[in-house]
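Predict structure. Chain length: 687.
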Amino acid sequence: MNRSRFIEGPAGSGKTTAAIEHVHALLRDGVPAEQILILVPARSLGTPFQRAQATPDWPPGAPLDVVTLGGLARRGIELFWPLIARRAGFRDPLREPRFLTLETAQYYMNRLVAEQIRSGVYDSISVRRSQIIRQTLDNLAKAAVNGFTLEEVEARLITAWGDRHSSRPPVYRASVDLARRFRALCQENNLLDFSYQIDLYARHLLREPQYRAWFAGQYRHLVADNLEENVPVVADFIRWAWDALDTALLVYDRDAGYRVFLGADPSGMAELADLCQEVEHREPAGVSETPLNALSSTLAALLDGARVDESEPSIEPGLALSVQTHRFFPQMVDGVVDEIAALVEAGTPPGEIAVLAPLLGDSLRFELIDRLEERGIRAVSHRPSRALRDEPAARAMLTLMTLAYPDWGIHPPVLDVADALQQVIEPLDPIRAWLLAQIVYRPGSGSLGSFDVIKPGMQERISYRSGEQYERLRSWLLAFSEDAPTSPPDHFLSRLFGEVLSQPGFGFHADLEAGRVIAELVESARKFRQVLHPDGADDWREPTREYYTLVQEGLLAAQYLSSWQMEQQDAVFLAPAYTFLMRNRVVDHQFWLDVGSSVWWERLEQPLTHPYVLARSYPADQIWTDDLEFYARRDALRRLVLGLVRRCRERVHLAVCNLGESGYEQRGPLLQIIQRLLQPQASEGDV
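Prediction complete.
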């Protein structure tokens, strides 16, 4: 076999399968599994390699080392910390570092941002405290993955803004100053967030001869999959490791690059082909004249600004896609549910159906899941960018937490208590939960009264069964007050769920989605305890309150692998379109909701950062113009649409409503492209 190979092609051309076969061949030839490094941009994208090891024909031996650059950096720092700590400027290089999650990094930065907010420096833009923290952390991450200094980040943002508005440069300077203060806090306390781990790895560890010698002795073979989703310092790392490798296989999707907003550098990764002895170009497997392949080719041409050649045989819409139009948003949701129900009745497994939207809000998610369940069709959803507090199960747990700690003086409103009771007590519907909360809850003291003292008529209306479960919950909360000083926040959450809420008769007993959310909440609280209070606490009530406050202020949850591992469930999958793409999953049927919405085309507004300006490939002295914004949006829409079509086996179902969820007319760019595609066949009023 050639020592180095670069495989490029679109989704569905068998690139990852070829990479797995390459690893399989190495193992059959006697290469130890621990000498093979499989590098992926995100842990979820390593799933195909993990699954391959479970197949019967897989050679026995050690498990494959599937890792991200962040994971590789953390390992290296843990092993060689004394070698780099003093040189990197840490105050106490002899003390072990503490690795921060996204959540704990937000907590530490939250301590620093209050003074800036009081100064009014952010008054010229509409931005919340949580957004300041997240976007400042994003600036740090962009600096790390591109090899920029913070001074370069500041200069790039200010230069790209130009002279359009004099108030923006002070805002950029404030965010970068916050980043510097956060980095100084990390140096003072041996704290390492993601960006600092990458920075230390790239600037210090890769320059150490001892680490180079260790790496060369550890890894002899490299497989890098989904290169287009990785960041520039990964290309630097591959070049750094290249001469020490016996074999290398690099895998690249030419039309992907969905993680640009996270720093991905598709164009830079394509240049790695020059390192390889063999470059293999692939096309989608199967016959090129299939309706979906033809649809993909035509969409690519339209999104590139080309005209469709009407002399060529046109696509029959019924073969590759279907379009249903409605005047109002609720009608569109009903129509999608009806069509899904028809597919399931005709024999399509629910797990082969994905419902995708540019954004999946709470109301839309609830409507879809509720109406599908009314038809007996199970549905699951995944929205990785949601804050912990936005999950209903997490909100219920946090409300019960305030009731378990009355000395905090945090008294939730009656509505929150009613919502929590309705979720956690199985027999309760919203109306009876509201009645129960109004009677037993005392907002002034934050305490719960006994069900036994309620008038018999009202007890009967609420139901004695519900009252029995309520009393079990109330008794547990009262008894816990004695253990509160010795119970960390993760212990409270775990015990409440395990001892009460997951038991028969309670709402979370058979709710797998709620169980997943609470498991992630418990893990979040555990990491909070381990990082911020590694030596324990004499009294855990105040640290628990710190955690509660952090979550309530909009803590953005870390990425938990369990959230990405739902393919095994035979359920309709609901997700934002980009989330579906990052799962690298193929289904028989896709439903694209609200195709007329301009959100399919728009970029998330981030007033303190900029994913394109803070890219290594972007000229440092160039102003970001409206033309550049247009071309960036068109390129992103092209990648999104082609990525979705190439992950569909049978049909794409387009759902259009003339008036969107907010009541405004919908005529976004994606709908215009679809209209041009269907024009030869469309009759008046079709779209």
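Summary: Residues 302 and 673 are 7 Å apart (CA to CA).
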